[in-house]
Amino acid sequence: MANSEYEYVKREFEFDRRLPPSNWSVVRIDGCHFHRFSKIHAFEKPNDENALRLMNTCATAMLEKFPDIVFAYGVSDEYSFVFREETEFYHRRESKILSLCVSYFTSVYVMKWKDFFPNKELKEPPYFDARAICYPNLKTIRDYLAWRQVDCHINNQYNTCFWMLVKSGKSEQEAQLVLKGTFAKDKNELLAQQFQINYDDEPAMFRKGSSVYREKVETTVKIDDYGNPIKRPRLKVTVAHIDIIGPEFWENHQHILREGKFMHEFVKKFGNDRMLPPCNWIVVRINGCQFDQFSMIHSFDKPNDETALRLMDASASLMMEQYPDIVFGYGFSNEYSFVFHDKTELYQRQESLILSSCSSYFTSLYMKKWKEFFPDKELKQTPRFEAEALCYPKLKIVCEYLSWRQAECHAGNQYNTCFWMLVKSGKGEREAHEILKGTLSKDKNELLFQQFQMNYNNEPALFRKGSCIYRRKVEELAEAEGGGDGTTREQWDVKVDHVDLGPGFWRKHPWIMTNCN
């Protein structure tokens, strides 16, 4: 980290909210605008089996990736992940847990799309939001899961009736009126009498949702000297469509959770929707997780892969189109900061929903754009991003935050440029670190010039200064309406630039932070 005057903007304004200890933590992931998404991709109604199996595959990948998740339950475009009570995942930091989970889930969803929809192009990037809920004991965590399964049954029974009525010729409004005020028994009778459907014979995945957990199975670990298999119990991730409201499942799977008493009417009270303070500028900073490994697997150029950086910029530009309240973005390497204006009411300023949806959408864009930037490189590993929120009461501090990130960009890039030039010249990585230990900026410039005939200031501005994105006015269109006076309409586009973010930049672009409508 660069020791600069701007570092206080992280130290004093970063939120470090941690989930309370000795609580079971649930991360519930929900699809954003999935009514539209399912319509665009022509999902079958009331249930698209392939879409549900894709969600189950994502949940399975989550349990395989994160050992602290002990159980997951999903229905429709929603999945709940239960972390073990004593988890220290990310030191229980809420923003990190939420953003990483939703980003990884999104990444798997996009990567596995073709496995389930080989003949359907992914027409728009899917994304999800997430929230964390904490429950103090096993009884309440059981009640939470029971509540979600009750919701699954109620919604699926209603939707089954609704879509059968629509398919029989009724309008959607007429179908809603037919079902208004009906009970479960009435809906079962409607299905049986009008459509000869026994609701209990519908697929269990639709009626009961999907439970994902580790099941004990006998696995052959080796063969003895006589050719006999030696088996040991091992835990394998399993997807099942069973009743989790009653005690039978839990009695037979005591390694997951223990039995408790049931009363799921009050579980919503444990929600912990923190609101970011009003009239503050919100910065959402997104960081790639384990991108050293990711860049190595995908053979990114060192110290900078221009194509990878352009991919980050393209994803960030599309973020501004999706979120009009983002007024500015700054990024370098595998990081991007997005500034939301101080009057934003996105998600009513709920921190968890802002962080998770931004992290998920950025991940989805990154994956969807991959082939455009790397047409000859297969995406071998799912990328994932974490996010955190910072709030600043004054515009001056926001500008200093951005200056701090640019100072970090310069310090990191100058070091990496020297390091990789030394390595490429034949030095070992440890030896290169030793040579650079304790050097100042001036020393690094001299090293590059004297040993490699490089003028650091002539390196591409993209590498040295990072990327800033903002809206600019490109033209005004005057149109005459009905022969009357012309009207003036402003037209804006998103610009990517690589410049110093000092006072001169803000004087030259005063509208960026002030034109927030």
UniProtKB/TrEMBL annotation:
The keyword DNA-binding does not apply. Keywords: GTP-binding, Magnesium, Metal-binding, Nucleotide-binding, Nucleotidyltransferase, Nucleus, Transferase, tRNA processing. Residues 6-136, 265-393 form the tRNAHis guanylyltransferase catalytic domain. GO terms for molecular function: GTP binding; magnesium ion binding; tRNA guanylyltransferase activity. Gene3D superfamilies: 3.30.70.3000. Its cofactor is Mg(2+). Its EC number is 2.7.7.79. GO terms for biological process: tRNA modification. It comes from the Eukaryota. One of its GO terms (cellular component) is nucleoplasm. It holds the Pfam family Thg1. It is found in: Nucleus. Residues 139-245, 397-479 form the Thg1 C-terminal domain. It catalyses: a 5'-end ribonucleotide-tRNA(His) + GTP + ATP + H2O = a 5'-end phospho-guanosine-ribonucleotide-tRNA(His) + AMP + 2 diphosphate + H(+). Its main location: nucleus. Belongs to the tRNA(His) guanylyltransferase family. Adds a GMP to the 5'-end of tRNA(His) after transcription and RNase P cleavage. This is tRNA(His) guanylyltransferase. It comes from Setaria viridis.
